[in-house]
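#structure-requests
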Amino acid sequence: MEDGKKRLYLVDGSSYIFRAYYAIGHLSTSKGLPTNAIYGFIKMLLKLVNQEKPDFIAVVFDREEPTFRDEMYPLYKANRKAPPDDLVLQFPYFERAVQVLGIRHISMPGFEADDIIGTLAKRASQEGFDVVLVTGDKDFSQLVSDKISIYDTMKDVWIREPDVKKRFGVVPSQVIDFMSLVGDTSDNIPGVKGVGDKGAAALINQFGSLEGLISNIGKVSNKRLRDALEKGIQDARLSKDLVTIRTDVPIDISIEDLRPKGIDKTQALEFFRELEFYKLIEELSLSLS
């Protein structure tokens, strides 16, 4: 990214929560409330802000309500296990954690965090911002451009256009079509049975897009692959709808609203006392008086 440009960081809240939970061992208050994920989450956010010094930043969360994808395909994410009980007990605290750090948190009924991130990323990039998607989720590769990159903080890896091509064998604008064919087992998205990563990349590169492939199935030389595609057209189209990150969510937030405000010391002290994060209070020089 070019120096001197304003940068917007959009943090995938769910990704951060689960990574924090599995990165930090057991931690709880004297009353027995588990706090390992909350503590790790806060530490990760603080490190990001101190290291990157974002001009604008937001943490985007999923909500419990069904989304348009659930209505489209009731089996969407149906294979996922329920989160651990000791993590569920911590869910009510993450938005407050973001708030006391002076960062805007965003969620919206009917949409996943991915779609809100996609919408804000596209809007900001069109307004001339450099955008960083803070996540380990490969699905966001479809949004990568000369103005949008991915930063996986856990691996300290940046993902830009050449990296997407190297990983998937297709350019970012073709990732949706690639995923339409291979599916996504983590989200229970079917794809086309019998089409793997290498085959999908070769087909998309040859025909340009999913629709280009469907229009020219007869030109696929491999009979086994051609038969699989003919049987799986509907699954491919459904998968494309499911994997596509929306960039048109009707969200009434301007990028200026996402300027970090700095830690609210009064609220942070109260919150950290409640959770018995005394080391954080010391590290951030929050008065205990």
